[in-house]
């Protein structure tokens, strides 16, 4: 890589990463600290998130990527990653590409990597493509060289075909482009898909994959690389995103390959066991403009295994495309002393290198002249000439910036097919002769005829170049000396800085010691608190012992009950078993008896029938015999009769045989039945035996249970005795401690009584002194009356000056006389202050600051007589105030006076603002009392009364008691959470609009909370979601688009271009919110129902105004209609749009962003304000020493505040940007500075709940609200910006307030154009400072007029 680094030198530019200071970005999983690979750790520190606005999300998606450290004129190189991976794949190759001078981006594909996907956007192919396009459109903005390894190649091809204007060329590494998406996995049930994805994250699968991709890798490195590869899987949304991608079908780009028109570099690995090189060759044949390069001895991921080879291929390919140009802008263009020193060193080294190369050129030329000229030495000479040519080429490449004219390069010509070599060269030294020898090799290998030709012009050119090099070297030496001097000065400054740092270190050590002392003090207090807690713990343990005894008793009773139930159940089971056995035996005996009787009866019947038949046959035979005998007697033939008789006998014998066989079968059946009867009896005996065994086991169980119970009872008894003993000991110890504490309390009470008695004595003495003072005052009053009469008579020339009055000195000054008497401080105090009330310090300071313009004092009585001023017209003696005539109240003691004074002071401070609020209604002009829905009164200060987690508590009951506190602090309106029933507990997925029983509380609790706000003169603003609404039922198609509740709408209430809910309304007039059905506000019945609902919230619930959620989803004209119908006191719209960024940094010009917000306000006819998202985004960067962002070219603020301040609602954070969501959190260390900006500037400021009650800056916010009130700042106050630069920001708002932000050394006296007297009201050092203008007023009191400032007058009026 030496040549590569030489061609493209490393540029030291300020990098942007998210980790700052060597740390990792906070959004990375904590397992990043376990990674050992240094290149992975380095690249991870540079990962940052940039905002990307995509169509299916309400807000920006913060996409993770590695941004370049420099930006170039040429096309950038954008690096994608493989399937289910992250930008850390390029941990080894990315630094090499940067060293080569390329502008490189490493981007995480949507769904993988470290992007913030908490809102769960779709992660299918279209979403990934759209996300990549929006990122390119927002941040890269130039045609790029898109690099995709493995599945990233399919991503690159899909993107290049759909957005050809964004892609200049492609680099495909082991491209996986012939796969048919995710195949059968699209038909898997979700549960099965999640199971497969969980398996994909498992360590064994990941380890096997690494072994398959990287062969021969050590085990420790394999494990470390496996941890790098699965790091992104630890983010909470990884499984959802991957399952979404699998079920969507994945990438299938085989049909798009031939549509790629860009030039393509195909890189394949020879040893890739995942993607065969045949696929790369096939891809080359199908792409119209492609070349292929192979990497040997490498697996599936060559950019990890051989990053140098991949970087070289990408750089060469970029060079061939004309992508490699010099950088034109850097992220950090500040040159420090080290950079100057480095530049000087490089310049000097470059000059020395130039001299060395010139010497090498001459040396090479001399060597060439001395080489033998045989043909077998031709290759050596050619190599030397090639070396000479290389040196000359490097010289012209590196040092062409030092050359003022074009140099000639030496010409080397060689003909390998001929035996003639002509060399043009120049001799070294001072010789001016030219030699030209031609060596001709025509005669054979002897080389007798060779010619060396030397040109005089070449020698002169070389000498001129050498002289120029000497002159340049001298110039560089001078430049180096100058730079070394600057370096010395920089080192001196560094020493000064070190001294300052050491001083600061000593101060820090001193502060540390003070903190240590404070810590010891706190520790002592903690020890005392611990002693108190231990005493309480003793009592708590005693209660616990008693509770344990009761628990043991209850456990004993429960155990006995449970045991008795078990015994009864066992006995019942045994009885049931015995009964079942007896019943079974009886049934068997009955069956046997019935079967036997039936068989015997049938046998007897058959036998009887057979006997009857035999008897009948015998009777018939007898009759036949008689007939035969009779026939025989009558000479019949007897033989035939004999034969018939014999046949009948045979039949009878057969019948008898059958009868016998039947009788034998019956006997066998009877034997079988007897056998079954015996078996049944045996089974009955077995059942009886089993019942006896069960009864025996039951008895054993009862005995064992009784033993266990007795044992447990004994253990419980021992434990109770032990606990009683311990409790007795603890009770004694607690009693002893209590007695000691009681003695201490008694001693303290005695001391307190003594102190009180001493105090009473002191008060009595003071009362006696006061009485004496009263008597002295009466005498002084008499003296005053006498001397006043004497002075009046003297001035009227009635009584001459007597000698006894010489002790008094009169000073006449035309309207005032001061009597200077002997110094009696107690008398003067009584005369000036009176007996009850002391003059406050602030009033005393104001009185001392008054310098009345009296005429010059006269030093003598004669001058006074001839003065042009009138004589004194003193009041009559009865009109002169005298302490003697002032009577105290009954039972008015000094103690009661002090206590009364303290109570009145506390009440005054508590009621000052409430009285001010009551009286301001009488003082307001008609313009100030007029309410407009777009501005309210113009002096509103809104408080967001919830955060993202407020639904977890009974929020309405918790918010209501805070109403009085908010009113005292100057809040005028409270923003409530969404009141309706919602699918999401936070309220932003509403379903039944009229059901106001939400996660924050019931409808009655809501009305009670609003009523409490009204009691404290606070407006209640309801958060209403009008853009979308969640359905209650599914349509026949299975789509959730049937609404329920009082507003039972159907699909006709949903816009038709909502891609998820099959609406049948008109197209949307704004952006689509993909999480719920978007309402079609163009339908008359929808607008009518919404207006009725808003009016019910106004009239029945008590809401005064609205905060409108996601107003980007529908036209502002509908908002105007809703506002005019419901007539709110104040309305605010949430129009949250992405700001403009350039190269990952916030753009200075945000006119397009605030123009979109102003256009929406215009669409509402000015009936609604809008959140000033522009000002929030600018403050994020401006407060980090970039205050120049706070002024636009016209000298106005750069947000909506600068164009339409009366409709700008300024804020720092809300439930989306801050709280537990943290989509766009404001820098915490800059919160007070941010509030100092929005609370002192025009517009309507919003205070977030977490900041006011949880972040510890409540007092600072209250102080800023008070400053806004005193200065009379409102939403239309004019603003004049005096300074806005890196050091700070200064502006005057209205005529009475000046604010300064930052460490800029400034005060109003330094500003020429800032007239008037200014008094510092708030001083927070380098964060912010506030001044209020000194406005004077004349207040008249009996006998005196005082000129004091406005704020002292307000204190006095309270």
UniProtKB/TrEMBL annotation:
Coiled-coil positions: 466-500, 670-704, 894-921
Enzyme class: hydrolase
Domain called Alpha-amylase C-terminal beta-sheet: residue spans: 1269-1333
Domain Glycosyl hydrolase family 13 catalytic: 940-1274
Hydrolase found in the keyword field: yes
Keyword DNA-binding: no
Swiss-Prot/TrEMBL keywords: Carbohydrate metabolism, Coiled coil, Glycosidase, Hydrolase
Pfam families: Abhydrolase_6, Alpha-amyl_C2, Alpha-amylase
Listed EC numbers: 3.2.1.1
InterPro entries, alphabetized: A-amylase_bs_C, AB_hydrolase_1, AB_hydrolase_fold, Epox_hydrolase-like, GH, GH13_cat_dom, Glyco_hydro_b
Recorded family membership: Belongs to the glycosyl hydrolase 13 family.
Protein name: alpha-amylase
Species per Swiss-Prot/TrEMBL record: Fraxinus pennsylvanica
């Amino acid at each position: 890589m030496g040549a590569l680094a030489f061609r493209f030198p490393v540029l030291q530019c300020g990098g942007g990463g998210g980790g700052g200071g060597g740390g990792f970005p906070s959004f990375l999983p904590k397992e990043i600290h376990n990674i050992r690979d240094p290149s992975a750790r380095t690249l991870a520190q540079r990962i940052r998130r940039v905002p990307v606005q995509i169509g299916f999300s309400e807000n920006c998606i913060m996409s993770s990527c590695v941004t370049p450290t420099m930006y170039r004129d040429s096309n950038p190189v954008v690096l994608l990653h493989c399937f289910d991976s992250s930008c850390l794949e390029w941990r080894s190759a990315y630094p090499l590409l940067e060293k080569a001078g390329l502008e490189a981006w490493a981007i995480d594909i949507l769904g993988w990597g470290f992007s913030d996907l908490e809102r769960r956007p779709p992660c299918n192919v279209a979403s990934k493509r759209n996300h990549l396009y929006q990122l390119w459109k927002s941040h890269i903005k130039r045609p790029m060289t898109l690099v995709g390894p493995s599945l990233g190649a399919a991503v690159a091809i899909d993107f290049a075909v759909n957005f050809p204007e964004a892609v200049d060329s492609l680099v495909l590494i082991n491209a996986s482009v012939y796969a048919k998406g995710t195949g059968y996995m699209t038909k898997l049930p979700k549960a099965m898909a999640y199971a497969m994805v969980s398996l994909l994250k498992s360590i064994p699968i990941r380890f096997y994959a690494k072994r398959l991709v990287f062969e021969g890798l050590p085990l420790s490195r394999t494990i470390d690389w496996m941890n790098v590869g699965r790091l992104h899987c630890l983010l909470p949304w990884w499984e959802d995103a991957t399952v979404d991608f699998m079920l969507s079908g994945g990438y299938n780009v085989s049909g798009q390959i031939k549509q790629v028109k860009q030039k393509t570099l195909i890189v394949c690995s020879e040893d890739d066991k995942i993607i065969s090189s045949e696929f790369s060759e096939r891809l080359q044949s199908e792409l119209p403009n492609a070349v292929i390069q192979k990497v040997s001895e490498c697996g599936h991921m060559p950019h990890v295994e051989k990053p140098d080879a991949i970087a070289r291929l990408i750089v060469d390919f970029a060079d061939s495309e004309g992508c490699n140009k010099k950088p034109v802008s850097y992220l950090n263009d500040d040159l420090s002393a080290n950079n100057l020193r480095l530049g000087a060193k490089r310049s000097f080294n470059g000059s020395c290198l130039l001299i060395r190369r010139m010497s090498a050129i001459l040396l090479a030329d001399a060597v060439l002249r001395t080489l033998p000229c045989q043909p077998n030495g031709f290759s050596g000479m050619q190599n030397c000439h090639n070396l000479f040519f290389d040196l000359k080429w490097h010289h012209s490449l590196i040092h062409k910036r030092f050359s003022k004219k074009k140099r000639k390069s030496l010409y080397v010509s060689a003909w390998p097919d001929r035996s003639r070599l002509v060399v043009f060269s120049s001799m070294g030294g001072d010789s001016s002769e030219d030699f030209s020898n031609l060596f001709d090799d025509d005669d054979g290998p002897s080389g007798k005829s060779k010619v060396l030709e030397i040109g005089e012009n070449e020698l002169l050119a070389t000498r001129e170049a050498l002289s120029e090099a000497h002159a340049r070297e001298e110039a560089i030496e001078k430049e180096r000396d100058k730079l070394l001097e600057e370096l010395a000065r920089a080192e001196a400054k560094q020493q000064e800085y070190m001294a300052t740092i050491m001083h600061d270190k000593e101060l820090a050590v001193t502060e540390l010691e003070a903190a240590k002392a404070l810590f010891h003090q706190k520790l002592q207090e903690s020890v005392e608190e611990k002693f108190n807690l231990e005493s309480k713990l003793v009592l708590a343990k005693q209660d616990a012992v008693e509770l344990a005894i009761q628990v043991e008793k209850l456990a004993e009773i429960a155990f006995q009950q449970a045991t008795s139930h078990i015994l009864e159940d066992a006995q019942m089971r045994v009885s049931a078993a015995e009964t079942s056995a007896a019943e079974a035996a009886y049934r068997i005996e009955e069956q046997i008896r019935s079967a036997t009787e039936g068989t015997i009866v049938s046998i007897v019947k058959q036998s009887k029938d057979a006997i009857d038949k035999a008897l009948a046959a015998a009777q018939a035979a007898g009759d036949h015999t008689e007939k035969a005998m009779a026939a025989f007697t009558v000479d019949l033939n007897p033989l035939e009769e004999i034969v018939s008789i014999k046949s009948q006998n045979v039949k009878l014998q057969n019948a008898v045989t059958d009868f016998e066989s039947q009788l034998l079968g019956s006997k066998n059946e009877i034997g079988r039945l007897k056998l079954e009867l015996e078996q049944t009896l045996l089974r009955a005996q077995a059942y009886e035996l089993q019942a006896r065994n069960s009864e025996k086991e039951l008895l054993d169980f009862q005995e064992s249970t009784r033993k266990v119970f007795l044992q447990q009872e004994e253990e419980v008894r021992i434990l109770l005795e032990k606990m009683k003993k311990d409790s007795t000991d603890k009770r004694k110890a607690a009693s002893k401690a209590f007695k000691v504490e009681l003695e201490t309390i008694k001693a303290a009470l005695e001391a307190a009584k003594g102190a009180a008695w001493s105090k009473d004595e002191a008060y009595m003495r003071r009362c006696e002194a006061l009485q004496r003072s009263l008597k002295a005052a009466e005498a002084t009053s008499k003296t005053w009356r006498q001397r006043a009469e004497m002075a009046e008579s003297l001035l009227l020339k009635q009584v001459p000056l007597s000698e006894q009055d010489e002790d008094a000195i009169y000073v006449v000054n035309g309207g005032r006389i001061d009597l200077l008497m002997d110094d009696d401080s107690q008398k003067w105090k009584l005369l000036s202050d009176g007996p009850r009330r002391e003059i406050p310090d602030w009033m005393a300071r104001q009185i001392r600051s008054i310098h009345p313009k009296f005429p010059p004092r006269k030093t003598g009585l004669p001058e006074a007589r001839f003065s042009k001023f009138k004589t004194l017209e003193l009041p009559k003696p009865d009109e002169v105030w005298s302490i003697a005539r002032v009577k105290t109240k009954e039972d008015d003691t000094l103690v009661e006076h002090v206590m009364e004074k303290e109570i009145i002071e506390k009440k005054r401070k508590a009621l000052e603002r409430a009285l001010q609020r009551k009286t301001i209604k009488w003082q307001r002009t008609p313009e100030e009392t007029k309410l407009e829905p777009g501005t309210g009164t113009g002096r509103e200060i809104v408080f967001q009364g919830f955060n993202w987690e407020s639904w977890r508590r009974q929020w309405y009951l918790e918010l209501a008691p805070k109403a009085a506190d908010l009113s005292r602090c100057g809040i005028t309106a409270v923003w409530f959470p969404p009141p309706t029933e919602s699918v999401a507990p936070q309220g932003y997925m509403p379903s039944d609009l009229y059901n106001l029983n939400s996660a924050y509380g019931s409808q009655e609790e809501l009305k009670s909370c609003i009523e409490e706000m009204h009691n404290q003169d606070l407006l209640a603003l309801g958060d209403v979601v009008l853009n979308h609404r969640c359905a209650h039922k599914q349509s026949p198609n299975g789509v959730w688009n049937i609404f329920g509740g009082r507003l039972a709408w159907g699909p006709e209430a949903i816009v038709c271009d909502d891609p998820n809910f099959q609406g049948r309304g008109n197209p949307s007039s704004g952006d689509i919110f993909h999480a719920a059905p978007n309402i079609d506000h163009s339908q008359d019945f929808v607008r009518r129902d919404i207006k009725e609902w808003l009016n019910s919230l106004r009239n029945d619930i008590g809401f005064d105004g609205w905060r409108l959620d996601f107003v980007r989803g529908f036209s502002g004209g509908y908002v105007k209609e809703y506002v005019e119908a419901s007539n709110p006191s104040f309305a605010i719209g949430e129009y949250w749009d992405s700001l403009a960024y350039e190269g990952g940094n916030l753009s200075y010009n945000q006119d397009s962003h605030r123009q979109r917000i102003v256009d929406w306000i215009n669409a509402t006819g000015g009936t609604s304000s809008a959140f000033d998202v522009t000002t929030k985004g600018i403050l994020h960067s401006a407060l980090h020493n970039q205050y120049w962002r706070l002024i636009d070219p016209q000298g106005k603020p750069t947000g909506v505040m600068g164009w339409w301040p009366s409709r700008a609602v300024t804020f720092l954070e809300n439930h989306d940007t801050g709280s537990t969501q943290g989509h766009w959190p404001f820098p915490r260390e800059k919160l007070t500075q941010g509030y100092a900006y929005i609370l002192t500037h025009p517009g309507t400021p919003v205070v977030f709940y977490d900041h006011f009650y949880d972040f510890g800056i409540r007092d600072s916010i209250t102080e800023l609200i008070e400053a806004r009130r005193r200065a009379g700042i409102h939403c239309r106050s004019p603003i004049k910006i005096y300074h806005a630069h890196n050091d700070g920001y200064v502006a005057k708002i209205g005529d009475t307030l000046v604010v300064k932000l930052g460490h800029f050394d400034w005060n109003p006296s330094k500003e020429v154009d800032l007239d008037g007297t200014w008094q510092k009201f708030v001083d927070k050092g380098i964060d912010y400072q506030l001044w209020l203008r000194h406005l004077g007023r004349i207040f008249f009191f009996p006998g005196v007029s005082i000129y004091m400032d406005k704020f002292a007058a307000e204190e006095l009026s309270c």
